[in-house]
Each structure stands twice: as structure tokens, then as C-alpha cells.
Amino acid sequence: MQSLLGFEGKRVVVTGAYSGIGASLVELLREAGADQIVVLDIKEPEAAVDEFIETDMGNPVSIDAALAAIAATDRGVDVLFNNAGVAATLPADTVMRVNMLGLKRLTSGLMPNMRSGGAIVNTASVAGNRWPEHLAQITALLSIDSWDEGIAWIADNETLIADGYFFSKECVQVYTMQTAKVATAQGLRINSVCPSPVDTPLLPAFRETMTDEIIDWAIDAGAGRVATAADQARSLLFLGSDLASYVNGVNLLVDGGYTAALQMGQVALPGQ
Ligand SMILES: NC(=O)c1ccc[n+]([C@@H]2O[C@H](COP(=O)([O-])OP(=O)(O)OC[C@H]3O[C@@H](n4cnc5c(N)ncnc54)[C@H](O)[C@@H]3O)[C@@H](O)[C@H]2O)c1
Q: How far apart are CA 158 and CA 150, in angstroms?
């Protein structure tokens, strides 16, 4: 099985691996035989990793320093997992920085250093499923290269961005699709997983910002049990592996059937 996944001899970068989905992913990558696991996080993971680079994904200076540290070893990168994320218990501006601007900066900075045959996998969310309603605005934001101009655009669009979480995940889904074509030119793939509620240290923050009623309803509307971090990590591992060799530009719903049930009219939003 290890060789089917194809992680042997590979150098893998994971953001947000101190806890939750990212920590579970690191365990699976080890089992899959990944050669070098590099973690970028604000907190040092307890699990043994080959390299920890303390990085604030909401800070461009910190991200650029991480890019320089990754490039310094003279070994390319095979797979990048953009998993770090925060909830709207933090200010909208911070949510947009970490979940979207930082993800894009790290990805575009790392892509030239990635080896053909590699993959980028983002942790998006079902919270981003309504991107078609905002495609023009999301495309406008994604077309901005400068960090400061991105921040200014965010400040000018506070009503649209609201608490930052839903919009940031819509941006991640669109970024995944937009970058897929570009990635093929380099022999790379880019995909996302879109989880529904997951039992991680972040879940209480979603209960606070979205209410218990909405979170419990979303769990019941899907599989009837909350997802585990491992449920999500397995799908991340698949998309980063050679098993997904022809999967590109996909936002994979890992939601226990929640979106399907909603779209098929089998469940209704609370109060409807
Ligand atoms: N838990 C859920 O219900 C759920 C649902 C959908 C999507 N997600 C997404 O899954 C991803 C992982 O979250 P999780 O649920 O495992 O939560 P978590 O809080 O356990 O993990 C988040 C990780 O990101 C790190 N992190 C936080 N801020 C950072 C920063 N500024 N720079 C670098 N690293 C930072 C944390 O230290 C942690 O390791 C996030 O992108 C989140 O949006 C989670």
C-alpha cells in the first residue's frame, strides 16, 4: 500500500499540524513512508517531524522567512498541504489573512520549488460551497498579488466578507480551481477537501460563531456523527498521493453526505 500512495522519498510540507486534522495527517504521512515532513505552524507539534518552522500564516514576513528556510536545504518539495486555518472568533481581517492570503502566498512562493509529479492539497470547507454567488468578487481579490493591496481590498469589502470564515473558504475553493490549469504546466495537481463539522480543538469556536443549533443540524443532516480528524486526514492523504494522479482542480466534499442531502432537498435549513 505504501508504494501505491507513493510518499516514499518525498518531501512534504504541512501547515497547521500542531492539532486536529493536520496532526492526524502527519501520523498518516509517517505511516505512508514520507521521507521528510516539514511543519509550518505557530505552535510546535508534539509529534516527531523532520523540521518545524515557526510560521504565522497571517504574516507575510513570517511566510517569506519560511519559504527561504524551505528553499535553503536545496531539496525541492513534492507535496504541500495548506491546512492551517482559524475561525471567526478572531477578527475577520485575521481570518482572511490566515485562511486565504497566507495560503495563496505560501503556495505561489513554493510552486517554483516543487517537483513535477507533486501535489498541493488545501483544507477548504463546506462553508465555502456558495462561491458561485461571489465569483466576480473572489476573482478580483485573487488577482491581487500585493499583500497590502489584498488587505486594502478586504477592508473596502467588509460587508461582503462579513465574519471572514465563509468568504475565506469560498476563496480557497475558487483558488483551487483557478490554479489547477497553471499547475499542470509544472506537472503538479491542486485539490481541496471540504469538511463539514470535525471534532477538533476548533469545533467549539464554530459552535460559538455559528451556534450549536447550526452545527448539530449540519452533523445530523450528513452522516449523523461528527467527522473525526482522521476522516479528513485520510482524504487529504489520498489527494496528495499518487492514487489521485489524475485528480486536479477538485473541491472534494468530505462531509458525510451533508451537501448531497441539502442539494437533493432531503434536509432543510433550520427554520425553513
Ligand atoms: N473543525 C472543523 O469543524 C472544520 C470544518 C471545516 C474545515 N476545517 C478546516 O480544517 C483546518 C484545520 O483545522 P482543525 O479543525 O484541525 O483545527 P485546529 O485548531 O486543531 O488546527 C488548526 C491548526 O492551525 C494552526 N494555526 C492556527 N493559526 C495559525 C497561524 N496563524 N499560522 C500557522 N498555523 C496556525 C494551529 O496551531 C493548528 O495546528 C482549518 O483550515 C479549518 O478551517 C475545520
A: 13
Atom 34, ligand 1: which residue's CA is nearest?
Answer: 41
Cα(152)–Cα(250) distance, integer angstroms: 30
Is the beta carbon of 198 within 6 A of some atom in ligand 1? Answer: yes
Counting from 1 in the atom list of ligand 1, the atom nearest the Cα of 215 is 3
In angstroms, the Cα distances linking 234 to 166, 172, 210, 230, 231 are 24, 20, 26, 6, 6
Segment 249-266, tens digit of pLDDT: 999 999 999 999 999 999
Domains of the chain plus CATH, in order, are 2-198+228-256 (3.40.50.720)
Residue 57 near ligand 1, beta carbon < 6 Å: yes
pLDDT digits 0-9 by tens, 103-128: 999 999 999 999 999 999 999 999 99
Check whether 140 has a pLDDT greater than 90: yes
| Residue 41 contacts residue 52 (beta carbons within 8 Å) | yes
253 lines ligand 1 (CB under 6 A): no
Report how far apart, in Å, the C-alpha atoms of 206 and of each of 87, 90, 101, 113, 199 are: 6, 11, 21, 35, 11
pLDDT band at 2 (very low <50, low <70, confident <90, very high): low
Q: Considering only CA atoms, which residue is closest to atom 42 of ligand 1? A: 85
